[in-house]
Design goal:
single chain; 4-stranded antiparallel beta sheet; about 500 residues; D-Maltodextrin-Binding Protein, domain 2; globular; 11-stranded mixed beta sheet
Length: about 500
């Protein structure tokens, strides 16, 4: 049935385009991957938006740089790079690469994509606060920044900075259909329902084993799990914890995420302006009870802000308590969270019990995220539970720490302003990538935690489903890769 449907899709596309063939068309209906994803496109698969991560996970749009498991930059469409002066990086463009429309990749075309991203309004997140000037010299793309930036190669790994053919850029829109360089050609987008991709027979790397990909967007978690259980899907992302027990355990993989469930305490006003009461709250929180009771063991108790998705974070220095807990004595606090993540209201209920057992009097506030974010950022609550991504688009946690805990941070729910924290973050930000930077990041983490402004409780995992017979799918904590050239269903 699926083969007939896939074949009819290809025939329709050929009729509409007037083409007699397309990359991979001869294999349509055989060896295809049926993929079910959580969130439908929010911006019509505009690669300058968060939809870029879908294009990356389908191996259709590629960047100059990739990140390895440790978060270090590796060659992709750029074969290498160097820093020619404190402000300028030179990237050598890979030869013999063709876009899906047949045009060759050149340094000028790569620069065209980067300039479009830098000039976009709004800019891709990865370029917030960054001024890029992009020029070309021979087969090299020169990327200059207004101030020294040791993370330029990391930034260029963001899926939002994918390199597309010239025809992708028409007016104010960016169209990824048939304009990438990856192992699969995006041939059709069906609104928010699905997408179709075909194998790229001219791919510059190893040829994909699968003939194509059929994508469906299914926001309902129960329906996604059912698609795996009934054999309607080969690969399913983001299976809810509540559905895991209903599935064959051999079809589920738990992937540690760079996402921490954290309790933010308001340090500017109210009860938690007192460091002693912040220490009392920290002593009251039992992360293990949350992992076992709410997440059914499918999460990791937090030792810090950063978790097992960043293996090097386990090398953090010891952090002795600096403030003794003060007695709560019936202190009234407001504890808030949101409903958009199914587990958080339950986490809030458990935390309420834990804090009340420690002597606090707790008022619980739970709303949809769209209706609570502004209040949280303005410091309307004493405590706020947030599931927070700790590694943003650059693959480096400094941006998250600056956003959440610096005096000028744009997402500073704790209302924290501490000169020691700012100094530690500034040191981490200017340290070159590598082991030295990681040490500086862990020192900054310790400085933040010593303020008591945030209590990390657990690190989340994502459950990925692969039907029996499926091999080669990626289990990527950063959710940048999913379908690879090795992915296929037997």
């Amino acid at each position: 049935m699926r083969s007939l449907l896939a074949a009819s899709v290809i025939l329709s596309l050929l009729a509409l385009t007037g083409c007699s063939a397309m990359p991979g068309a001869a294999d349509a209906g055989a060896g295809r991957i049926d993929l079910v994803m959580l969130q439908p496109p929010r911006s019509g698969l505009n690669p300058l938006s968060d939809d870029a991560f879908k294009l990356s996970r389908w191996s259709t749009a590629e960047t100059l740089v990739n990140l390895d498991a440790a978060g270090d930059p590796q060659p992709a469409l750029a074969t290498g790079w160097s820093q020619s002066d404190p402000l300028t990086w030179e990237f050598t463009i890979r030869r013999d690469v063709r876009f899906h429309d047949g045009t060759p990749l050149t340094a000028e075309r790569a620069a065209r994509s980067l300039r479009a991203a830098a000039a976009a309004a709004p800019k891709p997140r990865i370029l917030d606060g960054v001024e890029l000037t992009v020029t070309v010299k021979d087969d090299k793309v020169l990327v200059a920044t207004a101030t020294p930036d040791p993370l330029v190669p990391h930034r260029l790994s963001s899926p939002q900075l994918a390199i597309l053919a010239e025809k992708a850029y028409q007016g104010r829109t960016v169209n990824p259909v048939g304009t990438g360089t990856g192992a699969f050609v995006l041939t059709k987008v069906d609104g928010t329902s699905g997408a179709t991709l075909e194998r790229n027979e001219r791919y510059w790397g190893p040829k994909a084993k699968a003939a194509g990909i059929e994508v469906r967007f299914v926001p309902d978690g129960t329906a996604r799990a059912a698609a795996l259980r009934t054999g309607e899907a080969d690969i399913v992302e983001a299976i809810p914890v509540s559905q895991a027990a209903l599935l064959d355990s051999e079809t589920i993989t738990e992937v540690p995420m760079p996402r921490t469930n954290t309790l933010y305490l308001n340090t500017a006003k109210g009860a938690f302006k007192d460091p002693g009461l912040r220490a009392a709250a920290r002593a009251a929180i039992d992360g293990k009870a949350l992992v076992t009771g709410v997440y059914e063991g499918r999460a990791d108790v937090a030792a810090g802000l950063l978790g097992p998705a960043l293996p090097w974070s386990a090398r953090r220095p010891a952090r002795p308590a600096t403030v003794e807990p003060a007695p709560a004595n019936g202190t009234k606090i407001t504890l808030a969270t949101f409903t958009d993540r199914a587990e958080l209201p339950e986490v809030a209920a458990v935390l309420r019990q834990q804090l009340e057992q420690a002597g606090f009097e707790v008022e619980l506030v739970v709303r949809e995220y769209a209706h609570i974010e502004a209040d949280a950022l303005e410091g309307a609550f004493d405590a706020f539970i947030l599931s927070r991504a700790t590694v943003l688009d650059s693959g480096d946690p400094v941006a998250y720490m600056v956003s959440d805990f610096s005096c000028e941070g744009s997402f500073n729910i704790s209302q924290l302003c501490d000169e020691r924290v700012d100094a530690a973050l500034e040191e981490a930000a200017r340290t070159p990538a590598g082991e030295e930077r990681r040490r500086a990041i862990l020192e900054a983490e310790a400085t933040i935690l010593n303020t008591g402004a945030a209590i990390p409780m657990l690190h989340e995992r994502v459950l990925q489903g692969d039907a029996r017979g499926v091999t080669g799918s990626a289990k990527d904590p950063r959710e940048r890769i999913l379908i690879t050239t090795d992915t296929h269903a037997r």
